[in-house]
Amino acid sequence: xxxxxxxxxxxxxxxxxAKAGSGExxxxxxxxxxxxxxxxxxxRPKPFPxxxxxxxxxxxxxxxxxxxxxxxxxKEERY
Length: 79
Hints:
The protein has helices at 6-11, 13-21, 52-57, 67-78; strands at residues 2-5, 26-30, 33-38, 59-60, 63-64. The mean pLDDT is 83. It is rod-shaped, with a radius of gyration of 27 Å. The protein has a 3-stranded mixed sheet with strand order 1-2-3. Strands 4-5 form a two-stranded antiparallel sheet. The protein folds into 2 domains: 2-38, 3-Layer(aba) Sandwich (YefM-like fold); 49-79, no CATH class. Strand 4 (59-60) and strand 5 (63-64) form a beta hairpin. It has 4 helices and 5 strands, in the order βααββαββα. By secondary structure, it is α+β, with helices and mostly antiparallel strands.
């Protein structure tokens, strides 16, 4: 945890935000008393999942499923 005066925070805001982004908590003080905190985000964004397994599961009879294939499957189910 880093303690910084409000005056210092004004001139170094980018650096303080970078610290908070990397997981460190920053406390802003005025006359030695805590007045605010810059904290890291509660949740880290998750990386986009690998969709290769999903795409493989969408294969029908050895051919990849396309919009036309889905439309044909719907027609077969209806009639």
